[in-house]
From TrEMBL:
The gene is modB. This is Molybdenum transport system permease. InterPro entries: ABC_perm_TupB-like, MetI-like, MetI-like_sf, ModB_ABC. Residues 10-215 form the ABC transmembrane type-1 domain. CDD domains: TM_PBP2 (cd06261). It is found in: Cell membrane. PROSITE patterns: ABC_TM1. Keywords: Cell membrane, Membrane, Molybdenum, Transmembrane, Transmembrane helix, Transport. The chain crosses the membrane at residues 12-34, 46-69, 89-107, 135-157, 196-214.
Length: 222
């Protein structure tokens, strides 16, 4: 019984982190790439909004998602009409919560990496006839690979450890939306300390491995 109950939160957390980390990486890369070198009215406000989930309590983020995508919102109603079920308390709710909380960290890391590229190198490529897409793919991204890989890895780790927003938006339904952090919380609340210890050990092991990867990326010579 322990074996069957133990592995579901582990598997679900890895699935949610895998999907959300890819989505948040592509989203953050697109926004950071578009914002790079641009100035326009309201840019500071936009960047503040991008970073806001980093400082807000996760419960506030979860509440915001309930308001934005709940059954009473038009976005939530569109989702329910398309997929014949509400987004709240589903697998996708856990993914969305992970995307929102991981985005500021990934965005800031990618932004820093892109801004660290010498603009003279990009200008040199343009002067030789390269278009903006070619400059991005053959100059900017290869030079920023260390920051990009670090951003993805940290985004995966952040999504894996998301708790507050996930609990409010996706709930804690065993066999459906119970991730590792929520499983640990419920296990401690119900006095199942042995199971909580095993889950804590699992998430510590995964997190340690991810941070080791980040350390190796940062230490790897050019």
């Amino acid at each position: 019984m322990m074996e069957s109950g133990f592995w579901f939160p582990v598997r679900l957390s890895l699935e949610v982190a895998s999907v959300s980390s890819v989505i948040v990486f592509m989203l953050a890369l697109g926004i950071a790439g578009w914002m790079k070198g641009r100035t326009f009215p309201g840019k500071q406000v936009w960047e503040t909004l991008c970073m806001l989930p980093l400082v807000l309590p996760p419960s506030v983020v979860g509440f915001g998602l309930l308001i934005l995508l709940g059954r009473n919102s038009w976005l939530g109603q569109v989702f329910e009409w398309v997929f014949s079920q509400p987004v709240v308390f589903t697998w996708w709710a856990a993914v969305i919560a992970a995307i929102v909380v991981a985005f500021p960290l990934v965005y800031q890391m990618i932004k820093t990496g892109l801004e660290s590229i010498d603009p003279d190198l990009e200008d040199a490529a343009r002067s030789m006839g390269a278009g903006e897409v070619q400059v991005l793919w053959f100059v900017t991204l290869p030079l920023a690979w260390r920051s990009l890989l670090t951003a993805y890895t940290l985004g995966f780790a952040r999504a894996l450890g998301e708790f507050g927003a996930t609990l409010m938006f996706a709930g804690n339904i065993p066999g459906q939306t119970q991730t590792l952090p929520t499983a640990i919380y419920i296990a401690v609340e119900s006095g199942e300390m042995g199971m909580a210890v095993y889950w804590v050990g699992m998430i510590l092991l995964i997190s340690f491995a991810l941070l080791s990867v980040v350390h190796r990326i940062q230490q790897k010579p050019e």
